[in-house]
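Final report, results section. Input specification for complex C-07:
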Amino acid sequence: MAAAEAERPSVTGRHISRKYDEALEDVRTSVLEMGGVVEEQISRSLAALAAFDSEIGERVVRDDYKINRLEVQIDEECTRIIALRQPAASDLRLVIAIIKTITDLERMGDEAEKIGRTAVRLAGNAPRRMRYAGVRNLGRHVQQMVHQALDAFARLDVEAAVAIAREDKMVDLEYAACMRELVTYMMEDPRRISEVLDMIWCARALERIADHAKNIGEYIVFLVKGKDIRHTSLEHKELQAQSEV
Amino acid sequence: MAAAEAERPSVTGRHISRKYDEALEDVRTSVLEMGGVVEEQISRSLAALAAFDSEIGERVVRDDYKINRLEVQIDEECTRIIALRQPAASDLRLVIAIIKTITDLERMGDEAEKIGRTAVRLAGNAPRRMRYAGVRNLGRHVQQMVHQALDAFARLDVEAAVAIAREDKMVDLEYAACMRELVTYMMEDPRRISEVLDMIWCARALERIADHAKNIGEYIVFLVKGKDIRHTSLEHKELQAQSEV
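Structure output:
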């Protein structure tokens, strides 16, 4: 995030009140901070799962409160800005995009917590971890996507935001392949059904994290372009992103 | 909803501008309309699943656009109100609660769509439908919870909103029991793993719908009491609801 943060432009321009500019910048910085914590939680939960490490898994579960706390704090900052500053046009879009973004970030945190819990549960079993390469690859891909989404938010980069929707399609395909693989393990050895089911939940959690990243991409387009591209096809999104503001 | 709608009080009181009052009432009515469509979609998806009826299932998938359209429309209404009316205090809380509520309603619709898709997929298999009583009971319970949430929203009833969090705990227990039952089916007959997995996804979708209903309950408390009760324990929520405004 550091590189992206350094060069991030101000969408809001300059206001007569320097305090207003600062308030908007502060809340954007808070969102990036929250994003950083979420990235760390996802990364730790995947490490816990790869090694069936209950200690790291428990830490992920314990640290989820940090994300929740940031969500409530940012929500309050946004409410205060709307009430005190009565933002218009692009400032208002920024605040609304932030209110939506932090909901998705918080839910990503919940999914990471679930993966952490699963790692704790599996740690006792010492299962055959070599088998789950599919879930691990999916995890790496999803991590990348979350990073892209936060980077696009930091730079308010519409093209990068639209690219995330494209990436989400790839993740969906990868997830489907991963699921097929996991089902065959269950069929081969019904005694492992519970264990494989746990890995299926993790794959599902990763797919959901990717969905949330995609949502954030859509808020960025809404924010910068003033257009709502949710519920439109990918081709349409690309066209919208290319069109003049 | 009809009875609840008739007696719903105005949280916003009267403004100097009658148009402003009307705009706030209109957007609340739109949310209830959206809620009605979501309830119908959930109800149909469960009917499709109970009878493995591909026709009803396809209709659910086809009709999801109605929910998406309402979400975008209400979002725009809210943005317009903030920009034109610069709402303060409880009005602002109402608008923010609505922006959050419709996101949860839209995601409920997505889960109903998933159940509809599963019903279509299973329709060809003609599986032993008697076995899935657990999922059907869970479905009834979740439907009830969604109705309670919308009712609490319509009447801005904080006690009813807190009761939803209590109900969600019950749904979680029911879901866990249902999952245990489904896993035993897989173990008994590994050839049915794919089919049972489909039912597991449906149970999961129902559990998520209940979560979204719980979220809506939390927004109602925030709206009426001006307190953010997310991420607090159930006992704490009850205390908050009882406390003086």
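Chain B touches chain A at residues 65, 68-69, 71-72, 75-76, 79, 82-83, 86, 88-89, 92-93, 96, 99-100, 103, 183, 186-187, 190-191, 193-194, 197, 200, 204, 228, 230-231 (CB under 8 Å). Residues 89-123 of chain B form the longest helix (35 residues). This concludes the modelling results for the funded period.
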